[in-house]
Amino acid sequence: MEKPRYLYHGSPRELIGDKLAPGQKTVDLGEHPENLIKGVYASDMKEYAIAMALVQSNGVQNASVGVSNGKLNAIVYRGWPESEHIYLYTLKSTTFHEIPKGSHQWVSLQPVKPIKIEKMSVQENLYVIRKATSEELEAHNQKFGKKIEELKKKEKLKI
What we know:
Elements: E1 6-11, E2 40-43, H1 46-55, E3 60-68, E4 71-79, E5 85-92, E6 96-98, E7 105-108, E8 116-121, H2 122-125, E9 130-131, H3 134-155
Parallel strand pairs: 4-9
Antiparallel strand pairs: 1-5, 2-7, 3-4, 5-8, 6-7
């Protein structure tokens, strides 16, 4: 796949300053190395970036976002977005690398200045996420329940 000219970064917070900075420590219950890089994450799929902003919003405690067979699959396991707005940043792809290949996930290790910033309504974009079914929640709890409890105790994280 050819590198796209523009990428999208979703955030529940408005940018302070003029550049997105490489992120802080992230939590990936599956411990996928590509999700633990200290960088600016973006996607070539606008709805993926919107989903990422939504699942990081106030009220969401645990969620997953991925692409399977070219289709976005964004599931909220605990909580639901309580914020009024999210932000979508359009970025030039110059400093980004696709990690892993074919994933729609791109990472820049350098700060990135958005070329466009959109303030978006949470309510109007909820169509890109969904609540987990009872079966999905049960499977998620079996797979990650102990790890979530350990993280809550150890790091007092809201996950």
